[in-house]
Amino acid sequence: MKKPIQLLFLLTFLPTILLAQTGSKVFDNLTIKSKILNTEQKYAVYLPPGYDNSERSYPVLYLFHGHGDDQTGWIQFGELKRITDKAIEDGSATPMIIVMPNGNNDIIGYFNTIDGKWRYEDYFFKEFMPEIEKKFRIKSERRFRAIAGLSMGGGASYIYAMHHPELFSSSYVMSGSPGIRADANADEKTKAYIQNYNALQQVEVLPTDKISSVRWFIDCGDDDFLSVDNCNIHIAMLAKKIPHEFRVRDGHHSWTYWRASLPEALKFVTDAFHQY
What is the model's pTM? Predict the structure, then answer.
């Protein structure tokens, strides 16, 4: 009688065993050597269910953390694995690879410095992205690449997509920092630098068709201290007739708000991945 019992056990639990073997995975302490930054940079990655058991390539979302966190922020506080697994399971998000770089270094942030000694933006586009898309099975076409982030990372989501609209189909900005603040007393070099890293000024000076080629979603809580900045960017985009989504929900600058934003971000970028 042992064989029928063993067979019944396998038939009953094999689907669960296989699901466990093919479930999503998260790695939060990976590294890449950077010649541009002359240091080793950390990053985290989410690999969707089935990644290890297939040969298919996947869309990618580059997801940025905010000031005070690092590449583990979205995993530890944002509950990224649970939320993304659920979104993929219920069909609101397509299976995708999510890559989370670390912007918490001795010099914090995702931008180049004015003196050119710390070139994080250059590192991201010239070293990080090419290495990531070589290492993982990522679809290389623009329509399968998106960017999102919160607060300081939201500022990077504004600026990176404005500087390189040819690389991203969508940008989802959560409680986004507007970037470097304007300074009326700055010299010409500093003003040019500020303009390059200020989202509102970039809307004003960049060609409208360049910014409009990206799908935009701006999401900020009504009690967030950055709500006015994001409203101003929304108004500037309206004036320029740049298509975008703009949402103000109940909430403030907190992980409670961003955890609620993540499912919407996954759905939004999925629409582009599916060629809505």
Answer: 0.92
